[in-house]
Structure formats: C-alpha cells, structure tokens
C-alpha cells in the first residue's frame, strides 16, 4: 500500500500544527519548511479544512490551526479523506478478474491497513517523540519561521 504525496502532505500539516498549538503558521511558511509547492499545499489545507481537520484565520496575522484537539483527529479518517482511490490493482480491466481471488485478498489487506490507522490519532503520533517540538527540534522561539 502506498499513500499519495497529497496524503503525506496532509499528515505533515496536521503533525506540525499538533506540535505547535499556540502558533498560526501560514501555508507559505509550511510549504517553505517542507520544501513543497505552496500551491499544492494550499489545496491540501483547503481539503483538510473542508473535512473539519483544520481551520484558517484570514488576514496579515492569520494562518492555519487544528480545528479540534489532536486527540480527536483520527489518522484513518484523514487517510480515507485524502486518498481519492484505494484501487491497488486494476481488476476491472483484467481478463481473469471474475475467477481470481486477488481482489478479495487485497480488499482484506486494505481493510487491515486502515484498521491499524483507525487505532491512532494525531496526538498519538506526536506523543511518540520525546519532549516538546521533538518532530521539529531545529526550531526554537528565535528561529521559528511560523512563530
């Protein structure tokens, strides 16, 4: 199973925001930090907002923040929202699809994969690292471009 970069970026945004709850980082600053396209990240944040995972504050002092506590954001739900296609193989165009057990086996594997992610929240993912700002240790109050 491989997740898209879109989902990867969405999870990165959520982890960063969970790690720094008292900041309102801009999309541009997060894009620069992660070295990814600002336009692409805008789409990701927009989708996270539509799903109720983040909220945005407009204006010069605005930015992005979690829309709810990180313990209430389920990783499996985020992945389901961000991924648009969970088709692992192209069964509809396969000549043996009607007689093959691969589709069922892959469906079972996908369900197990998502069940594991359902057991985690964003808070669980940031809690696995020791100390404050452990995911982004190079940032402190003096050098934090989001603060």
From TrEMBL:
GO molecular function annotation: DNA binding; DNA-binding transcription factor activity
InterPro entries tied to this protein: Tscrpt_reg_Rrf2, WH-like_DNA-bd_sf, WH_DNA-bd_sf
Organism: Croceicoccus marinus
Keyword annotations: DNA-binding, Plasmid
SUPFAM superfamilies, alphabetized: Winged helix' DNA-binding domain
Name of the featured protein: Rrf2 family transcriptional regulator
GO cellular component: cytosol
Organism placement in taxonomy: Bacteria, Pseudomonadati, Pseudomonadota, Alphaproteobacteria, Sphingomonadales
UniProt keyword annotation of DNA-binding present: yes
């Amino acid at each position: 199973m491989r997740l898209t970069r879109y989902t990867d970026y969405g999870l990165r945004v959520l982890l960063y925001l969970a790690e720094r709850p008292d900041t309102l980082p801009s999309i541009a600053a997060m894009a620069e930090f992660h070295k990814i396209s600002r336009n692409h990240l805008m789409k990701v944040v927009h989708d996270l907002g539509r799903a109720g995972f983040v909220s945005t504050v407009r204006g010069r002092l605005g930015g992005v923040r979690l829309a709810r506590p990180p313990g209430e954001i389920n990783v499996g739900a985020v992945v389901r929202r961000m991924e648009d296609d969970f088709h692992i193989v192209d069964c509809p165009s396969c000549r043996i699809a009607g007689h093959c057990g691969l589709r069922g086996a892959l469906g079972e594997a996908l369900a197990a994969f998502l069940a594991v992610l359902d057991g985690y929240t964003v808070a669980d993912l940031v809690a696995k690292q020791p100390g404050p700002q452990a995911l982004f240790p190079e940032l402190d109050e003096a050098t934090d471009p989001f603060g």
